[in-house]
Specification:
alpha/beta, binds adenosine-5'-triphosphate, binds magnesium ion, 5-stranded mixed beta sheet, binds fe (iii) ion
């Protein structure tokens, strides 16, 4: 099916179009430049930017894909989670398009779309494997999932108990004076640093949290990143108190190594203990070079087949929404109608909203 996907949960206005698992266009407009001076996304500014960017982004996407609205078999839109006002712009636009063109509309989960985008490009020519898992590492979430069926069965195996990985990157970048958003800045800087310079803590890795395979502890597959951020702050303080120049690249590389090490080790452990042999990696932090590298290394060692989307498909975009929408359409699921609302805290287990 030819599916158009609309994304507006944060600062990216995204319109993507797919035909089945073939990507036709991924057109994105970001208001990040307007948020930089505030050190974080300002919801009101993001909503207004979506309003202004939507029509031009839609037109550019249709032109790029060489299709018209009349050609579409379905429209998919992010209904949550995300910023309420921002979500509302994409959802309102999607409803208007659906009504005007008589096209079925599917309200879908942004988080599942982050990992579902991995199927684009025909990664699974024989259909999705049964022993599938997904590692979602984004600005607001860090989760390891068992994916029974991308359209209607996702189980949460573990998640962060405090900050998300992306949040940890952004907060640490602020401590290091690297500006916002912090992920790409730390990723770049870490290339010139020594990842073994400082041993930062790996949260929830102690035996009392891990337990054993037979008797799992309370947080065997969970993460915690708030202690890591505090450890970086303490380390910076120590250098400053001693009057020493801050080894910013070494701190960035050491911080990144701690994040990536604990994410990948726990994810691979969860996969092994749940018979997961195929893993999808997704979310904005999945654009990170070191995370991609170490996940690939550890999956290979564990005999897990890893799928990693191109970096432009990891950060927020409309193609991921269209990709998941197409999967849902292909399984014959009913559309969501046009009476649904947005859900800023939609849980990952709700893949699409039923007709309300
Ligand atoms: P969510 O998807 O959980 O609702 P979000 O949509 O705001 O949150 P994403 O767009 O998926 O988040 O990801 C944004 C996050 O990814 C930011 O925290 C950003 O710092 C981080 N990020 C982007 N590129 C990189 C990179 N190369 N290395 C590390 N982090 C990165
Ligand atoms: Mg963004
Ligand atoms: Fe996201």
């Amino acid at each position: 099916p030819l599916v158009l996907g609309i994304e507006s949960s944060c600062d990216e206005t995204g319109v993507g179009i797919v035909r089945g698992t073939e990507l036709l266009t991924n057109t994105v407009s970001s208001s990040m430049d307007e948020h930089v001076r505030f050190g974080g996304v300002i919801p009101e500014i993001a909503s207004r930017a979506h309003l202004e960017a939507f029509v031009p982004t839609l037109q550019a996407a249709l032109d790029d894909a060489g299709v018209t609205l009349a050609d579409l078999d379905a429209i998919a839109v992010t209904a949550g989670p995300g910023l309420s006002g921002a979500l509302m712009v994409g959802v309102s636009a999607a409803k208007a398009l659906a009504v005007a063109t008589g096209t079925p509309l599917y309200a879908i989960n942004h988080l599942v779309a982050h990992v579902g985008v991995g199927i684009l490009g025909g990664t699974f020519p024989d259909g999705l494997p049964s022993n599938l898992g997904a590692l979602l590492v984004s600005g607001g979430h860090t989760e390891i999932l068992r994916v029974g069926d991308l359209a209607h069965d996702v189980e949460l195996l573990g998640s962060t108990i405090d900050d998300a990985a992306g949040e940890a990157y952004d907060k640490t970048a602020r401590i290091l004076g690297l500006g916002y958003p912090g992920g790409p800045a730390i990723d770049r800087l870490a290339r010139d640093g020594d990842p073994t310079a400082i041993r930062f803590p790996r949260g929830l890795s102690q035996p009392k949290y891990m337990g054993t395979a037979e008797a799992p502890g309370p947080h065997r597959y969970d993460w915690s990143f708030s202690g890591l951020k505090t450890a970086v702050a303490r380390s910076v303080e120590q250098y400053e108190t001693a009057g020493l120049e801050l080894p910013v690249a070494d701190i960035a590389a050491s911080f990144q190594e701690a994040v990536v090490d604990i994410i990948t080790s726990k994810a691979v452990l969860a996969c092994r203990e749940h018979g997961i042999t195929n893993l999808l990696l997704g979310g904005g932090v999945a654009a990170n070079r070191r995370l991609r590298e170490l996940t690939a290394e550890r999956c290979a060692a564990a005999g897990i087949t890893l799928t990693v989307p191109a970096p432009a498909l990891c950060t927020d975009n409309g193609a991921m929404v269209a990709a998941l929408g197409a999967q849902i359409v292909m399984r014959g699921a009913q559309p969501s109608g046009i009476a649904f609302g947005t859900d800023p805290s939609l849980p990952v287990t709700t893949i699409a909203l039923p007709r309300s």
